[in-house]
């Protein structure tokens, strides 16, 4: 019996421009400035041209995403990758703007999909969401001891609308996301440290972020809490940022 063929490990081409957008509501979110400073340093370290907007309203979340899409599509050189960081109060599927109105996350995500942003078609799009997704609190539990389609030479090559996207949430569905008034959020601070200090594909780095967060004990309301991020990926290739 012959040995199985190894999986093809194709990588995204990261030789082009790298663009990042951060939309952050700082109002009633103490510690946000610490996160913004950390993100700015990370994007600079990873070679991203970064745009940061503070205190967008719900409508401005949508407007700034559309502006970012237009910037990407009109960029003079090829764009290799886009990062979007969204930080606000929230609930499952929604973010709260500075005006206390809500905006749907899916409406923000779809602005950069393969249909709506041609310059990012088949390119990696990474969304980082630092926001609550519900009211549940995790006290923790005790534990013991690519190729999908074959095409002929004369067939047009197509990709699904929603591939090449990575959604990284600061917490799992239904749960609170934690943020320290002076030190910033555990999620953003851990992510930045791992992305700057470690090498590997982005999914390997995010696994390390999850491991570190799972090991932390967070004090809230006088009790120790646990929290871990959630990663949703439709990436078709390995994505390396370093």
TrEMBL record:
<keyword id="KW-0539">Nucleus</keyword>
<feature type="domain" description="Caspase family p10">
    <location>
        <begin position="155"/>
        <end position="242"/>
    </location>
</feature>
<dbReference type="InterPro" id="IPR029030">
    <property type="entry name" value="Caspase-like_dom_sf"/>
</dbReference>
<dbReference type="GO" id="GO:0043525">
    <property type="term" value="P:positive regulation of neuron apoptotic process"/>
</dbReference>
<dbReference type="GO" id="GO:0005634">
    <property type="term" value="C:nucleus"/>
</dbReference>
<dbReference type="InterPro" id="IPR033139">
    <property type="entry name" value="Caspase_cys_AS"/>
</dbReference>
<dbReference type="GO" id="GO:0005829">
    <property type="term" value="C:cytosol"/>
</dbReference>
<keyword id="KW-0221">Differentiation</keyword>
<dbReference type="InterPro" id="IPR001309">
    <property type="entry name" value="Pept_C14_p20"/>
</dbReference>
<keyword id="KW-0378">Hydrolase</keyword>
<dbReference type="GO" id="GO:0006508">
    <property type="term" value="P:proteolysis"/>
</dbReference>
<comment type="subunit">
    <text>Heterodimer of a large and a small subunit, both processed from the precursor; the mature active form is a p17/p10 dimer and the intermediate form a p20/p8 dimer.</text>
</comment>
<keyword id="KW-0963">Cytoplasm</keyword>
<feature type="domain" description="Caspase family p20">
    <location>
        <begin position="29"/>
        <end position="136"/>
    </location>
</feature>
<dbReference type="Pfam" id="PF00656">
    <property type="entry name" value="Peptidase_C14"/>
</dbReference>
<dbReference type="GO" id="GO:0030154">
    <property type="term" value="P:cell differentiation"/>
</dbReference>
<dbReference type="InterPro" id="IPR002398">
    <property type="entry name" value="Pept_C14"/>
</dbReference>
<comment type="similarity">
    <text>Belongs to the peptidase C14A family.</text>
</comment>
<dbReference type="GO" id="GO:0004197">
    <property type="term" value="F:cysteine-type endopeptidase activity"/>
</dbReference>
<keyword id="KW-0788">Thiol protease</keyword>
<keyword id="KW-0645">Protease</keyword>
<dbReference type="InterPro" id="IPR002138">
    <property type="entry name" value="Pept_C14_p10"/>
</dbReference>
<keyword id="KW-0865">Zymogen</keyword>
<dbReference type="InterPro" id="IPR015917">
    <property type="entry name" value="Pept_C14A"/>
</dbReference>
<protein>
    <recommendedName>
        <fullName>Caspase-14</fullName>
    </recommendedName>
</protein>
<dbReference type="InterPro" id="IPR011600">
    <property type="entry name" value="Pept_C14_caspase"/>
</dbReference>
């Amino acid at each position: 019996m012959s040995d199985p063929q190894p999986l093809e490990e194709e990588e995204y081409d990261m030789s082009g421009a790298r663009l990042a957008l951060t939309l952050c509501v700082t109002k009633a979110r103490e510690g946000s400035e610490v996160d913004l400073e950390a993100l700015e340093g990370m994007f600079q370290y990873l070679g991203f041209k970064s745009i940061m907007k503070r205190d967008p309203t719900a409508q401005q979340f949508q407007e700034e995403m559309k502006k970012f899409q237009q910037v990407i599509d009109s960029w003079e050189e090829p764009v290799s990758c886009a990062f979007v960081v969204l930080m606000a109060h929230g609930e499952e599927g929604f973010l709260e703007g500075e005006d206390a109105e809500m905006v749907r996350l899916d409406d923000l995500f779809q602005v950069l999909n393969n249909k709506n942003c041609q310059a990012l078609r088949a390119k990696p799009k990474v969304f980082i969401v630092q926001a609550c997704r519900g009211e549940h609190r995790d006290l923790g539990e005790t534990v013991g001891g690519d190729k999908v389609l074959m095409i002929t030479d004369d067939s047009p090559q197509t990709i699904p609308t929603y591939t090449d996207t990575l959604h990284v949430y600061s917490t799992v569905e239904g749960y609170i996301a934690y943020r320290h008034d002076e030190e910033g959020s555990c999620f953003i601070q851990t992510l930045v440290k791992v992305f700057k200090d470690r090498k590997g594909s982005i999914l390997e780095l995010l696994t390390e972020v999850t491991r570190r967060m799972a090991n932390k004990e967070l004090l809230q309301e006088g009790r120790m809490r646990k929290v871990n991020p959630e990663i949703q990926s439709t990436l078709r290739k390995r994505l390396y940022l370093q």
